[in-house]
Amino acid sequence: MPEPVEETVPIPEPQGLPLLGHVRSINPDFPLGSMPNPPRLFHYHPADHAHRKGEIYRLNFAGSTTVVVSTHELVNETCDEKRFQKTISKTLQQVRNGVHDGLFTAHNNSEEWAIAHRILMPAFGPLSIRNMYPEMHDVAAQLAMKWARHGPSAPIHVTDDFTRLTLDTIALCSMDFRFNSFYSPQLHPFVEAMGDFLKECGARAQRLPLLPAGLLHRARDQKYERDIEVLRSTAQSVLDARRAERSSNDRKDLLSAMLRGVDPKTGRRMSDDSIMDNLITFLIAGHETTSGTLSFAFYQLLRHPDAYAKAQQEVGSVVGTGPIHVDHLSRLPFLNAVLRETLRVNAPIPMFAVEAKEDTLLLGKYPVKKGEPIVNLLARAHVDPAVFGEDADEFKPERMLDANFDRLNNEFPNCWKPFGNGARGCIGRPFAWQEALLVMAMLLQNFNFVLDPKYTLGIKQTLTIKPADMHFRAILRDGLTPPPSSTGCPAKASNGQHANGGEPAAATTTGIPMTILYGSNSGTCEALAQRVAADASTHGFRVDKLDCLDSANGKLPATNPSSSSPPPTRASPRQRRPLSASPPPLEGVTYAVFGCGHRDWTQTFHRVPKLVDCTLADRGADRLVDIGLSDVSAAATFSDFETWEDDKLWPALKERFKPEADGRPGSSAGSATTALKVQVLNPRTSALRQDVKEAVVVEARTLTSGSQEKRHIEIKLPEGMTYSAGDYLAVLPSNPEQTVRRVMRRFKLQWDAQILIESEIHTSLPVNTAQKNVLVLADAAVDDKTKAELTRLANDGFDKEVTGKRCSVLDLLERFPTVELDVGTFLSMMPPIRVRQYSISSSPLWKPDHVTITYSVVHALPLRPRLLLWRRLLLPRLPLRRRPPRRIRTPLRRTLQPPRRSGADAHRMRLRRHGPRPLSRLCPRASRHDPQRAPTRPRHALLRLPIPETDDLYREEFDEWERLGAVEVRRAYSQAGAGAEAGHVQDRLWADRYDVIPLWVEGAKVYMCGARKVSDAVRDVWVKVREEYLRKEGKTEGEDEARTWFEGLRNVRYVMDVFD
Q1: Torsion from C-alpha of 548, 553, 558, 561, nearest 10 degrees
Q2: pLDDT tens-digit series, residues 159-192
Q3: 405 and 552 assigned to the same domain
Q4: What is the per-residue pLDDT across 1042-1058, written as a single tens digit (0 to 9) for each?
Q5: Does residue 1 fall inside a structural domain?
Q6: How many beta carbons lie within 10 A of that of residue 876, not counting itself?
Q7: Fewer CB under 10 Å: which end of the chain, C or N?
Q8: Are residues 470 and 455 in contact, defined by beta-carbon separation less than 8 angstroms?
Q9: Alpha carbon distance 446, 140 (integer Å)
Q10: What's the CATH code of the domain at 585?
């Protein structure tokens, strides 16, 4: 809390009417536009509020006052849950007539809310939301099909169709109920009743309290009661239908959670009234906000063609033309940024209200009484120039890409609050985000959109806001035709709760006993704990207890989440105990912690698990292994956990407790149950990858001679694929034909056989322990001599004879032909194919559909060709002699991007070996400028090149670009040269610092590409340059301050592309 000033400052108040105050000043159809200092982005400037009251003002409604704050500084202060709590506004008080103690409208002390919240949190966890993807895809496909059949000339009422979409989606996903809104020109009666109900709630909130209830609005009040009856009767019919189903116990949706869930704190279930309250709440909040977000997102994209093109291009490069799968959604960073930026400038809930728990001062000077409503006006705070710059009103998705989004939230906490705050924030955020990403990706994949050129953004406001009367046309892309019928949905994703995809492993009576505990709100950490329990018996341990942290006792490997809230409910009191002032001693306790969190909650990201981990150690507990952490927003939580579990947890447990043998009968420490069932199919079929396309290598030549061979290849991109300066080309490798034939011979398979793989356990290839693989071969040997030799190789001879000679599993199988290994076990040992990324060295201004790659040939290849798919470099093996064009499979990857506008900005690039490669793709664009405009400042390049005679690649091109004024090159030769040119790039930077400093002062930007070692060296010199500059200015700065300054530049004025 800011220090109070000596004298308080009265909160300014617009002029109002006697007694009535500002009641008559509020437009009932658009209250947001009636606020003093209205947001410019809504193009609504009421004449009666020409005066503007700045960051804070107070409104008076017939004696009832409300404070409105509209800057980030004030919003950030009111988000402190120790001083402020959610208040139920007058509008929400009216909404309570229909939904009572629903999650959105309940009072802070409501026990019904607390019970429902604890029961429903796991149902909104990442795993549960992921499992709802097929239903989301089903409804999104219905929308796409409807628009495709409309034809290219039919105007589409955007907000109406998005309302149908989001209502059907939340109903199908949460309660398996179909409104079938796309099959009728009229919206379902529930939707009409809900819209009228919400509008009337706003109108009733503005009625004068002095007039008798019902005196002037009898007909409207009767309609209001009928609308409530429609809402509650619909919810009751859904509830009755579910209870009448005999198979309802198999469902795992939100309605099932409400019917069968038990509050872990009180042991109570939700009442029927509470279930109906929350069913209606989900249908209201779950579709109003998302439909508004999607409508605003498409409006902004269609008003900003560059952003539209980037979003559509990203969908094309990630998804292609095939079905959209749930894993695609985590690979759409620009589309993610589009949604964030839309919610910044057009949040469908443009304000939220809190109240002070006690009399307090805002900013240390503005007095606010206990219980007085404070409206956080996000429509203004989200465009605060102090946070988002002078262009804060502009729609720029780039500012919301992950790196800058994280920086903004770290520097300006609570600067982005479209989902509310803290414990009363939106519980359905992950649901809405997955739905919105899927719908946008599907629509951009299939359609081009044309907005009505006469349309001017207007706002329709009920409980939320959305564009009014917005229409556009949807035109199928690339000659696509409307489908005759739905092509179906992908199968349900595995929730990954257990290692074997079913129930946890059967309890055993052997093995070392252990207790596994978790703290979890959303259910993710609970699922990870169940994974450990399922795997325990295979490692020689016995799970005696799997429970939440409040039952902790003894040794505790534990998993903990962190989000926007205090420690999870199912971590009390054990997890909270380390946070108390006088916790009990924990000597003799051995523990391990794995934590989950979401990067968007920057203030609490991994805070709780880290605090638990450190505090337990401080209190005397023995940390078994370093903490494991995962970001659930990256959709790789189970992969992260498996790596930590296999590489750290189980090895440490075995080292500490030394189990005699695995607890599962028939297993030994070196054996592995077959993870895969394999069926060999002789009929020939093919299934192409959906995320790559075929490109053609048209030229390959050598640039240098001698031992350090460097090559140049030219590749024709697949039709429809484009690129920008700064992109990667990602190449999907393939196994050498010779190696594949060796495998087929070893396992006696027909050359055209197809292999169908089924997995019985939840696992991620590969089984990443080479010694373990050798032991598996030893177990499969049928004679004692072979078994003994393989056992020796897995132990004493492993480093020298297996690792040292790069000996593969296939090599060992050929060396020991009596090993009877099935192909399923063999494949489970193989690492998966992964793309290899190469920096593009050309510019699209040269040939828009061709790219060039410049690379070194690494001769340290394995002694024999191996079926280790990720270690086989594809490009160095391309032939230099004439032969039919080689085809490769490739997607594009966006990476280091140059500045998008010319002007005074100069930029310098420091590049390591083959330094010209990234710069060569930027200079052609810089060399082409409008002759009518003033020439831009030349770009400065620092290039690190070992030897002038062999490594100064593309010298003629760079000389020409220097002549045109596009670039000024400063070279650094690490193995030759004299004077300033001798040394490494950091040495040249220091030598030229007096040329660099003026450019930096003028606003230059830096682009650094190279290895981590080079990046760190350049950073250290850059800090030294700043220190020298400050000394000349008569200023001093500590090393920590200098490094903090440098970190603040990253991804803003200093961008790095580090490749190791």
Answers
A1: 40
A2: 999 999 999 999 999 888 888 888 877 777 887 8
A3: no
A4: 777 877 777 677 777 76
A5: no
A6: 14
A7: C
A8: yes
A9: 12
A10: 3.40.50.360
DSSP calls for 317-352 = HHHTTS---GGGGGG-HHHHHHHHHHHHHS-SS-EE
Instruction: Answer yes or no: is 489 a known binding residue.
Output: no
- For 456-511, list the strands marked E by DSSP: 459-461, 465-467, 471-476
| Structural domain includes residue 87 | no
The DSSP symbol for 908 reads E
What's 375's domain CATH number? 1.10.630.10
Cα(347)–Cα(293) distance, integer angstroms:
7
Supply 291's token pair: 């439909």
Using DSSP bridges, classify how beta strands 373-377 and 351-356 pair: parallel, antiparallel or unpaired. Answer: antiparallel
Residue 312 shares a structural domain with residue 447:
yes
CATH number of the domain within which 1027 lies: 3.40.50.80
Question: Is 703 in a helix, a strand, or coil?
Answer: coil
CA distance 174 to 257: 9
Count Cβ atoms below 10 Å from residue 310 Cβ, excluding itself.
20
- The residue out of 657, 682, 701 marking a domain boundary is 657
The answer to whether 543 and 533 are in contact (CB under 8 A) is: yes
944 with 846, same domain? no
- Token reading at 657: 């407790």
pTM for the full model? 0.53
CA–CA separation, 508 and 382 (whole Å): 56
> In what side-by-side order are the strands of the sheet with 1054-1058?
967-973, 939-945, 907-911, 1005-1010, 1054-1058
**DSSP per-residue codes, 512-532:** EEEEEEE--SSSHHHHHHHHH
Q: Is 27 exposed, middle or buried (0-12, 13-18, 19+ CB in 10 A)?
A: middle
Task: Report d(CA 1007, CA 871) in Å as an integer.
Answer: 29
Same domain? 913 vs 771: no
CA distance 413 to 884: 58
Please check whether residues 599 and 635 belong to one and the same domain. yes
Instruction: State the CB neighbour count (10 A cutoff) for residue 668.
Output: 12
55 falls within a domain? no
Residue 711, token pair as written in the block: 């090559």
Cα–Cα distance for residue pair 31/33, rounded to 1 Å: 5
Same domain, 589 and 649: yes
Q: C-alpha angle 826/829/833, rounded to 5°?
A: 110
Quick count: other Cβ atoms within 10 Å of Cβ 956? 7
User: How open is the CA angle 936-939-941, to the nearest 5 degrees?
Assistant: 170
* DSSP-based three-state secondary structure for 773: helix
Tell me if residue 88 falls in helix, strand or coil: coil
**Same-domain pairing of 584 and 721:** no
Running along the chain, 1060 residues long, what does each successive block of 10 average in pLDDT? 68 79 67 56 36 74 86 96 92 91 90 91 85 93 91 91 93 87 80 86 76 71 93 88 71 85 89 92 86 96 95 93 90 96 94 94 94 93 95 95 93 94 90 96 95 89 87 84 43 34 45 79 71 80 74 50 49 46 67 82 77 85 88 70 85 84 42 49 37 79 68 85 77 77 84 62 41 85 90 84 80 89 81 70 82 70 37 36 56 51 42 44 47 46 51 70 76 67 79 83 78 80 84 79 78 70
Separation between Cα atoms, residue 832 and residue 1047, nearest integer Å: 35
* Domain range enclosing 800: 672-895
CB burial readout 880-889, b (16+ within 10 A) else e: eeeeeebebb
Q: Answer yes or no: do 250 and 334 share one domain.
A: yes
3-state secondary structure (DSSP) of residue 1058: strand
The 3-state secondary structure of 961-1030 reads HHHCCCEEEEEEECCCCCHHHECCHHHHHHHCHHHHHHHHHCCCEEEEEECHHHHHHHHHHHHHHHHHHH
484: in domain: no
